[in-house]
């Protein structure tokens, strides 16, 4: 038991009992459990995925942070690591996977491409950053980020989890719709984001008039 | 200092075969300056192509690509051919008027390896190949507007034809590309487009190309064939490949790969970039082997520029490319066994050695994976003595022992042998017909290695054997990777002993290289097969046409042939055998 993360400070526990006793709050216990078992979705898009694998291999060993259990199914995953260039053709699959993940769920944009298009931003098949569709919790810069950078980003995510409170987290609020549900984009003449269809209609009409 | 190198290849291939004399009136020798090969009349294409294969013996279609000559109002298709017995390549081209529908006969009946490459030319250029068995879009989706590689097709974030853009340099008053686009994003819709009424085309064509049969068994029982989609999110497809498989029970009756999920428009961006700006982009093709990708692109542009390479740099290039091959094959072995069900442990052994090689790349280039290390005429930085010592320690002491250890741990494992031995991958004839190159071809018994067949750089100075195995089953495909690692180590040992001191670049460092007009096709033996670059310069600072012939993409053409009639479990292993990387497959 790692007491420095679990126990509340300022409570003196006798030294011979530190391994078995902790005095803490429910929030802290809850967050401690969650931050130590973030299961990523086994999901690689491009070059960054190779560094993600390297981060799991023996030298960097992500399992030190409780993140080595890669789940191939989104139903068991807590975190989506968007590791690489998001293309328009791939986007519907990513959105579907994201919508299938149960709450609580987190999105980490790994690398320049996932964060904002990166070197391929001008490409006609490239989505300039996954944050145009999914709410991103942590951005990791780099092309590709080194395994150290990836681990640093994941520690940032753990810090974010530490600040949650059982009372306030959205996935225990009753009667509220999932605010993170993203409607599926459609592959038409170009990628159609259905949330913006009105806007597109207007812009396409103006274009002909001009 | 710059003594021009002998234009051996360019001259030799003109003399090798005289198609123009064989087909007077139908074939003419290329007349454009600094171009090579022959121009074939469209109507005579199939006749000439058949003769090229049967009479002249060019059995391997290496690369097929299109070029849009918008000023001449022509669309051109370029064919590069090799003999698997070695020797110079043969190039011929055919042209069609640039008026839709552009039609050119398909050569899939002559070289089956043309199938995906023709589909790609159809997808990106809109050339209809008459007689093609399955002409659908391949990288983009059905319903996408326009043919993006045409010169008059502008992407949504289009700024100018040529980089560096005036908005960035020299003043640098850059605004976000999103603000200039009417849709406020990387999007482009036709006029008066109404998203609410749009009906997506779906994938009728894909599924109609996969037959579904219902058979009636004895006793009145009906059996349906089922179509299963593997991917694009699937742990065994090595990235974002999707494969639609028709199954009867566990037997694969037919399959179609669906790709383009990582199509990041390498060619289009490459034609906007200056020549040197493309170098870091090549890193991201086959992201395991950025050094090999750099190598291929550098020698192609050097061919165009007609410049020599510094002696020390030649050795550094070979050392880096062979180190890259070793780590690629180690990862292949680890990932193959991962796919076979032994999760993680063998690949951890592979990654351990890979990390040490990546340390060397990081020391010389500054980056673990995306090295961006080669320059036209040499390399960007010298290898310091301490790094050289590290390479020597690795090559002479550590890697030979470790490779033996990995082989001893794995190769005699009963489960592995039972799984791999006897499952045929490809016969030699099929491999050649489907344009398969690299270890898969050599494991089928064809000793075709570009380092020997058409030596580039300084590979003719080294003593090494072309690894070849003759059964063509999965076990051979697996073992040949060990053979190749050992041969690479042999080359490395010689290179490390012979490497001289001296300058590392024959040119002055220059951001804007001057490339004379002309065309060049450079090819190297990348770890996965033949990596080719087809570059056309028109004398400006960026390439007029920039095309990559990736080994993964062309090798995948054979997947249907490989898997039909086998079990679905074997499909996973067979796909792993091809050693595909999506970065270069989709580009």
Describe the structure.
The complex is a heterodimer of chains A (210) and B (587). Chain A is mostly helical and 210 residues long. Chain A has 7 helices and 5 strands, in the order H-H-H-E-H-E-H-E-H-E-E-H. In chain A, the strands form 2 sheets. Chain A has a 3-stranded parallel β-sheet. In chain A, helix 5 (111-116) links the parallel strand 2 and strand 3 (138-140). In chain A, helix 2 packs antiparallel against helix 6 and helix 3 (47-56) packs across helix 6. Chain A is globular. The model of chain A has no long low-confidence stretch (mean pLDDT 85). Chain B has 587 residues and is an alpha+beta fold. In chain B, 38% of the residues lie in helices and 16% in strands. In chain B, the strands form 6 sheets. Chain B has a 5-stranded mixed β-sheet. The longest helix of chain B has 29 residues, at 311-339. In chain B, 51% of the residues are buried. Classes of the chains: A mainly alpha (210), B alpha+beta (587). Chains A and B meet through helix 3, strand 4, strand 5 and helix 7 of A and helix 7 and helix 11 of B.
Question: How much is the radius of gyration of chain B in Å?
Answer: 24 Å
Give the helix proportion of chain B (percent range): 25-40%
Content-based structural category of chain B? alpha+beta
Beta-strand proportion of chain B = 15-25%
User: The biggest beta sheet of chain A, please?
Assistant: 3 strands, parallel
Number of helices of chain A: 7
Q: In one word, what is the shape of chain B?
A: globular
Low-confidence stretches of chain B at least 5 residues in length (pLDDT < 50)? Answer: 1-15
| Main β-sheet description of chain B | 5 strands, mixed
């Amino acid at each position: 038991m790692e007491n420095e993360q679990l126990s509340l400070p300022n409570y003196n526990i006798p030294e011979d009992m530190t391994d078995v006793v902790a005095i803490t709050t429910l929030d802290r216990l809850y967050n401690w459990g969650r931050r130590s078992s973030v299961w990523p979705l086994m999901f690689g898009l491009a070059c960054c995925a190779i560094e993600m694998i390297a981060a799991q291999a023996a030298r960097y060993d992500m399992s030190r942070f409780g993140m080595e259990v890669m789940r191939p199914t989104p139903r068991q995953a807590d975190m989506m690591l968007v590791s690489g260039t998001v293309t328009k053709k791939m986007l519907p699959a990513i959105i579907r996977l994201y919508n299938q993940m149960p709450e609580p769920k987190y999105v980490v944009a790994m690398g320049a491409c996932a964060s904002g298009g990166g070197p391929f931003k001008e490409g006609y098949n490239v989505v300039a950053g996954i944050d145009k569709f999914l709410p991103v919790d942590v951005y990791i810069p780099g092309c590709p980020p080194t395994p150290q950078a990836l681990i640093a980003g994941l520690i940032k995510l753990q810090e974010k989890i530490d600040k949650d409170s059982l009372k306030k987290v959205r996935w225990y609020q009753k009667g509220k719709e999932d605010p993170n549900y993203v409607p599926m984009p459609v592959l038409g003449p170009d990628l159609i984001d259905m949330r913006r269809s009105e806007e597109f209609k207007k812009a396409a009409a103006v274009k002909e008039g001009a | 200092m710059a003594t021009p190198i002998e234009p051996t290849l360019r001259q030799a291939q003109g003399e090798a075969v005289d198609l123009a004399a064989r087909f007077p009136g139908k074939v003419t020798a290329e007349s454009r300056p600094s171009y090579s090969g022959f121009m074939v009349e469209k109507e005579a294409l199939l006749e000439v192509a058949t003769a090229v294969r049967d009479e002249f013996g060019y059995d391997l279609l290496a690369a097929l690509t299109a070029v849009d000559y918008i000023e001449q109002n022509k669309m051109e298709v370029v064919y590069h051919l090799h003999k698997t017995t070695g020797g110079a390549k043969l190039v011929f081209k055919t042209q069609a008027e640039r008026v839709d529908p552009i039609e050119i006969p398909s050569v899939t009946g002559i070289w089956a390896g043309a199938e995906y490459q023709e589909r790609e030319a159809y997808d990106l250029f809109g050339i209809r190949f008459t007689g093609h068995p399955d002409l659908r879009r391949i990288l983009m989706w059905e319903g996408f507007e326009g043919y993006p590689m045409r010169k008059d097709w502008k992407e949504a974030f289009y700024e100018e034809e040529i980089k560096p853009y005036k908005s960035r340099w020299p003043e640098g008053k850059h605004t976000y590309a999103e603000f200039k686009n009417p849709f406020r994003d990387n999007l482009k819709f036709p006029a008066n487009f109404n998203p609410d009424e749009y009906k997506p085309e779906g994938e009728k064509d894909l599924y109609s190309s996969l037959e579904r049969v219902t058979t009636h068994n004895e006793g009145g029982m009906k059996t349906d064939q089922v179509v299963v989609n593997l991917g694009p999110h699937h742990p065994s497809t090595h990235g974002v490949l999707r494969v639609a498989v028709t199954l009867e029970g566990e037997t694969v009756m037919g399959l179609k790969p669906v790709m383009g999920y990582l199509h990041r428009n390498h060619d289009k961006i490459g034609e906007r970039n200056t020549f040197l700006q493309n170098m870091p982009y090549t890193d991201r093709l086959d992201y395991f082997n950025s050094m090999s990708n750099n190598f291929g692109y550098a020698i192609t542009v050097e061919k165009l520029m007609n410049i020599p390479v510094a002696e020390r740099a030649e050795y550094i290039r070979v050392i880096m490319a062979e180190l890259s091959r070793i780590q690629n094959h180690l990862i292949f072995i680890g990932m193959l066994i991962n796919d076979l069900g032994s999760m993680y442990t063998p690949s951890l052994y592979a990654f351990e050695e890979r990390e040490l090689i990546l340390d060397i790349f990081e020391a010389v280039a500054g980056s673990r994976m995306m090295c961006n290390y080669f320059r036209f005429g040499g390399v960007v930085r010298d290898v310091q003595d301490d790094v050289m010592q590290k390479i020597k320690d690795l090559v002479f002491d550590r890697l030979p022992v470790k490779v033996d250890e990995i082989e001893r741990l794995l190769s005699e494992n009963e489960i592995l042998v039972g799984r791999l031995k006897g499952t045929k991958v490809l016969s030699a004839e099929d491999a050649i017909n489907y344009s398969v190159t690299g270890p898969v071809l050599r494991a089928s018994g064809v000793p075709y290695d570009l380092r020997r067949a058409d030596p580039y750089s300084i590979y003719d100075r080294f003593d090494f054997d072309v690894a070849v195995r003759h059964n063509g089953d999965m076990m051979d495909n697996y073992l040949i990777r060990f053979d190749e690692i050992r041969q690479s180590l042999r080359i490395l040992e010689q290179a490390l002993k012979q490497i001289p001191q001296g300058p590392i670049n024959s040119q002055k460092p220059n951001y804007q290289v001057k490339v004379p007009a002309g065309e060049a096709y450079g090819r190297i033996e990348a770890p996965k097969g033949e990596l080719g670059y087809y570059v056309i310069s028109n004398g400006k600072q960026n390439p007029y046409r920039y095309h990559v012939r990736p080994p993964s993409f062309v090798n995948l053409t054979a997947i249907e042939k490989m898997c039909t009639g086998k079990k679905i479990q074997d499909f996973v292993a067979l796909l792993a055998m091809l050693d595909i990387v999506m970065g270069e497959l989709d580009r």
